[in-house]
Amino acid sequence: MSFSEAVLSPWLMALCALVSLLLYGLALAQRPWRALLADSALQHRWLAATVAVLLMWQLRAQAVDWLSLHLMFTALLTLVFKAPLALTSILIVNLAAVVTGRVAWPLLGVNLLVTGVVPALVMVLIWRLVDRRLPDNLMVFLFICGFFGAALSSLAAGLAAVGLMALGASDAHALYQAMEYARFLPLLMPSEAFITGMLMAILLVYHPSWVATFNDHRYIDTK
């Protein structure tokens, strides 16, 4: 989901842009391009994934004038490429939406926060929990990260969008629509969880080395 029209107060859009800039700066400070430059196969996979997400974002439902509903794939990108490269992909996709005129440019920071930072942060926290606290089991990784993690990431993004509307909506009717939309969030989570989990299952079976957050030696070779 992403904002399509400026229904937030200017001060809130400016604040979101500042927060997004700060967090994206921290992500880019990890120098994710070093891994890309060192591995041409990774370059191809990352570019293909970014283009695929860009195309999938075109399949959207315009629930109301100011809000577009679509699959984000941020959780999947975070699991496969880790957060810095995942956030870079989401940045490119959002920039494409701005350049093509589908989203107003003042909303770039808001959408980066909702579709990028928040779901990626939730996914990283869940992955860290699985990596450090739970048994080294393939099914645990797949279901907790791939399915449950994607669902929670989608929920967090939706709650972030609703929270921003509650904090600084410039239109009372838009705020009412946001509150109504919040009631349908549990219905939107399964689609993101199913597709993310399904694609993760395919990758873990055929190409586990492609998943940057998955240690195939730890989860497969030692069993």
UniProtKB/TrEMBL annotation:
The chain crosses the membrane at residues 45-61, 73-97, 103-127, 139-167, 187-206. Gene3D superfamilies: 1.10.1760.20. Its main location: membrane. It is a multi-pass membrane protein. It is found in: Cell membrane. It holds the Pfam family CbiM. Coiled coil: none annotated. Keywords: Cell membrane, Membrane, Transmembrane, Transmembrane helix, Transport. InterPro entries: CbiM/NikMN. The keyword Protein transport does not apply. This is Energy-coupling factor ABC transporter permease. It comes from Halomonas mongoliensis.
